[in-house]
Each structure stands twice: as C-alpha cells, then as structure tokens.
Write a structure and sequence with these properties.
It is a single chain. Helices cover 28% and strands 20% of the residues. The strands form 2 sheets. The chain has a 5-stranded parallel beta sheet with strand order 2-1-5-6-7, sandwiched between helices. It has a two-stranded antiparallel sheet with strand order 3-4. Helix 2 links the parallel strand 5 and strand 6. 34% of the residues are buried. This is CoA-binding protein. Pfam families: CoA_binding_2.
Length: 119
C-alpha cells in the first residue's frame, strides 16, 4: 500500500480532500492528512505543523495554486515518489521543481484513480 499525504485535508464532509482521506483509508493506504485547521477526518488527526514523514509514496494536493508556494519546501522535503495535482491544483512552477528532483507528477483525480483501480 502507498503512504499518502493529503495536503489540504479538511474535516468538512463536502470537501474532496475529506472524501479522498476516507477512500484512501478504505482502500488500505496509510494516510497522513495535513491541513491548516485542526480537526479529524476518517479517525485521523489533521496535522497542522507540517510534520516530518518518512517513506512517502504519494502527495495528493487539494490546495489551489495561489496558496501552494508556502508549501513548496515542505512538499519537496518529503521526497515523495509522485505528486498528484487534483483538478484545480495544477501548478507549472511546483511541477517543474518536482521534476527537477525526479518526482513524478500527475494531473489526475485521486478519487477517480481509486475508483478505477489505478491508484
């Protein structure tokens, strides 16, 4: 299973990040929700202090490009194998930085990937 960091995690059931954390957990993946507001999703605390996390396979983004620059260093420091830019999070600047560090990037929807079995 793939250790996944959900950046932009929310305890609001109407948010896609909320749905993604639940679906990732149901699919058996280790999930670390990271966001700006404290809360809980799928029984997991939302981390707000940008924790150090080892062996990250995937970062899935739910933060708009205008709010991503403050996350760049953190995202790259986790050295994920891939970053999924969910719809509305596409960001050429971050994608370029990731590729320079040999991090794979995808423009995809985590929920769709999980539902069709190609996560």
């Amino acid at each position: 299973m793939k250790k996944t960091v959900v950046i932009g995690a929310s305890d609001n059931p109407g948010r896609y990040s909320y749905k993604a954390v639940h679906q990732l957990k149901r699919s058996g993946h280790e999930v670390v929700p990271v966001g700006i507001k404290r809360g809980e999703v799928a029984g997991l605390p939302i981390e707000t202090e940008k924790p150090s996390i080892d062996e990250v396979d995937t970062i899935t983004l739910y933060v708009g490009p205008q709010n991503q620059p403050s996350w760049y260093d953190y995202i790259l420091s986790l050295k994920p194998k891939r970053i999924i830019f969910n719809p509305g999070t596409e960001n050429y600047e971050l994608e370029k930085k990731a590729k320079e560090q040999n991090i794979k990037t995808l423009h995809a929807c985590t929920l769709v990937m999980l539902s069709v079995g190609n996560y």
